[in-house]
Amino acid sequence: MVVSAPRQLLRCPSPGCRAPVQPGATVCWQCGEEIDLRTRVEREPEAIALQFLLAAVAVKAVFLLMAWATGDWQLGFFLVYAGVLAAGVLTARRVLPPGASIAGAVGLSRGVPPRLLPAAGLALAGALTACLALGQIGDLVGVEAAGHWRDQLLGALFNRETTGRAWFGFFVGVLFGAFCEEFAFRAVAQKLVAVRHSPHLAVWLTAAVWAAFQADPLLLLPFTVAGAALGYLAHYTGSVWAPAVGHFLLFLFWYRLGGGGNYLHPLGAATSFGRAVVLAIVGAGLLAAGVAWLAARSAEHQAEA
Predict the structure, then answer these.
(1) What is the dihedral of CA 132, 134, 138, 139, to 10 degrees?
(2) Per-position DSSP letters for 116-153, written without gaps between them
(3) Nearest-angstrom CA–CA distance, 21 and 31
(4) How far apart are CA 10 and CA 246, in angstroms?
(5) Which residues pair with 10 in a beta bridge?
(6) 3-state helix, strand, coil in the chain (%, to 5)
(7) What is d(CA 34, CA 168) in angstroms, rounded to the nearest whole number?
(8) Residue 236 CB contacts under 8 Å (≥ 6 apart), including other chains
């Protein structure tokens, strides 16, 4: 009789065995150890999150190279976001027990309680203020290179004269991209990190990784702040829709206030370094107040539920 090898999705929890086992198995086929369906998640969440990140980076590299070769940046970024979404879905399916709903696990079927909306708005307003100020500071201290590539790329995405498909660029760059990244990074990767670490560490670590994923070192700090705000929205609401809508609003206003993609000097040349620093501190304070308010409101809602 031929015995097929089990798929390597879960492993035996015994350190001396670690044999691959079939999803749904209750006993290890090699050593007889009892199997918990969530053993792999509880023991190796960081490894799974890292594998997701590597897959997302590979997807982005391949499709951006394709976009560079063809000159079609809209299609390239559409495929990047679709690939990131697919990586998030496959990662979620990998760690969930057989038959479990991905929609329920990541909060697709969960709305945002109205009482949390004012706190979420304050957190987003603080994040936007801080990001604008940090971008301005980066420009004033001389870190911007002439003809910043992100400004040029956004111009290619949204300029009707350049692409002839400005509406598609808006959909890809703002709507579709916001949902795909929040699903993959906040609803999946952040939750994996939070399995064995504090929610705050999970929020900020995922935010920093997401900021690095944007491949723009000049905007690493502003994107980390923005990612943290979105991470707290995901954590305290339990819904993927809160960070997705927040992502859409945050970067839409950031783009528009920046005069059409001017991320690194959005406040204008007249804004001094000292004023930008003050605005960054004010923004950070508003973000902290919004997160604290969001946590209190979330606790009240859970106590009444």
Answers:
(1) 30
(2) GHHHHHHHHHHHHHHHHHHHHHHHHTT-PPSS-HHHHH
(3) 11
(4) 35
(5) 21
(6) 70, 0, 30
(7) 51
(8) 116, 291, 294, 295, 297, 298
Bridge partner residues of 21 (DSSP)? 10
Distance CA 35, CA 12 (A): 6
Helix axes of 117-140 and 273-304: crossing angle, nearest 10 degrees: 160
State pTM to two decimals.
0.78
Q: CA–CA separation, 26 vs 36, rounded Å?
A: 7
Rg (CA), the chain: 21
Query: Could you count the other beta carbons within 10 Å of the beta carbon of residue 167?
Result: 10
For the record, the structure tokens of 90 come out as 């496959």
Tell me: the pLDDT tens digits for 58-113? 888 888 788 778 777 777 778 888 889 998 888 888 777 666 778 877 778 788 88
Break the chain into its structural domains and give their ranges.
1-43, 61-304
**Is 43 within 8 Å of 59 (Cβ atoms)?**
no
